[in-house]
Amino acid sequence: MKQELFFKNLTPPAGRIDVILDTDAYNEIDDQFAISYMIRYTDKFNIKAICAAPFLNSKAASPAEGMEKSYNEILKLLALAEREDLSSIVYKGSETYLPNETTPVESPSADIMAKLAEEYSPENPLYIVAIGAITNVASAILKNPNIKENCVIVWLGGHATHIPRAASEFNMTQDIAGARVLFGCGVPLVQLPCLGIVDHFATSQFELEHWLKGKNPLADYLCQNTVAEASSYAAGKPWTRVIWDVTAVAWLLNENSRFMRDKLIHAPIPEYDKQYAFDETKHFIKYVYSIDRDALFEDLFRVLGE
Question: Number of H helices and number of E strands within the chain?
Fold first, then answer.
């Protein structure tokens, strides 16, 4: 890819775009907001696929179970949003994480990403928004290296570079091999770091109920789900809840820096000890360093409340 096009593809796109969303939708309550935000923005996003990503924590006994639960959660959200027309382009993802940095994990999600990438070009890229472990995307890159020419990847993963053990973030640490493939391949990449940057994008029960409650079935579900989750660990106490994943979708809407600020940095190298290594000979990525919390929540609540 010519350098001019590379840097152009690291700026928020104008007009309507084709996009894939890769999500561990059942892992937390924030993926549901990101999915809902994207499917409601019909004038901006032509959704080509929604892919279920693996995860492993107290909600899933294995990455495969996490992926299956995420797949079912995506379908549930589409029904609540009355967008069952998108159900045919929901794909199951990886059941394990990458075993190494050269072997892809086979899945329908990796296959559809690798296949669709062939329909695009550096002049007309396909956008892939990833908000979970990067296994599906890294596997697709290994299956079809043309992704680094024909796609732009926006990933919420890793912590801010100034945070100790910045590669210990949940999405990144689940599959460090996959993260190393992503950061090392040279694809136009936008990173939204979690701690230190995106953790500012938090809301409260009172905001959620004021702006979403009673608006529509999808808005009610998002509100109730978030309040119930927070009440499970902070009952009777003040709380705010980070809605991390919305920011990855919002970067694609960030014309004139209306929601966030970003800059070019040399790609950090996630290491297996959960640190970043830095090398100023590495290619550039776009690194988000500030979120305009109020401006983005204003737009999110407007779209979800319609």
Answer: 12, 12
33 Cβ contact partners less than 8 Å away, ≥ 6 residues apart? 222, 243, 245, 246, 300, 304
Q: List, for residues 11-52, the tens digit of each pLDDT value.
A: 999 999 999 999 999 999 999 999 999 999 999 999 999 999
Within 13 Å, how many C-alpha atoms sit on residue 243's CB side?
Answer: 29
28: left (phi over 0), alpha (psi -120 to 50) or beta: beta
Please list, in sequence order, all residues whose beta carbon lies within 8 angstroms of the beta carbon of residue 97, skipping any fewer than 6 positions away. 54, 63, 105, 133, 135, 174, 175, 177, 178
Pairing of the two strands 17-23 and 45-52: parallel
pTM for the full model?
0.97
Q: What Å distances lie between residue 47 and 83, 86, 251, CA to CA?
A: 12, 8, 16
Alpha helices in 240-292 (DSSP H): 246-251
Rounded-to-integer distance, Cα 122 and Cα 9, Å: 8
Residue type (1 letter), 207: E
